[in-house]
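WARN retry 2 of 3 for item q-0093 after timeout on previous attempt; input resubmitted unchanged.
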Amino acid sequence: MVLVLLVATLGTVGYLFLNRGGTTSTASGFLGADQQSVKAATTVVAAAQAVQRFAALHSFDLVAQAQSAVLDRQLTSLRSIASSSTGRQKQIANETASTVQLALEAVDRYRRAVAFTYRLADAEQALQDLNNAVATLKQQAQAWQHA
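OK item q-0093 returned
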């Protein structure tokens, strides 16, 4: 049991270390921030789906926390983009920042439901909200490209 926990923790730490290079430093502008937000949200869902044993919950929690940090950085970036934009682009950037905020809240609710309260109904609702945020982020990226 200790070995399984050790392997899961080492795997998570390695994943986070390798994945951190693709965050804000490579995200350029609105589309980069939008894409990193989508990636962070879908990573949380994938990590939860990989949980097969109680011992893996800690690893999921670490991934969820790391991806929340990515979402938080992208939210800051999008707010900065919105403040320096005008017209339709400003509107889209503000709407996208709001969507990322909703995604952050959904990740937190999903994390708590999966790793701490074990409430399936809460996890399902948070997952639905997270999936809706991802779909909206993809639409906002398309709108940005046409603005």
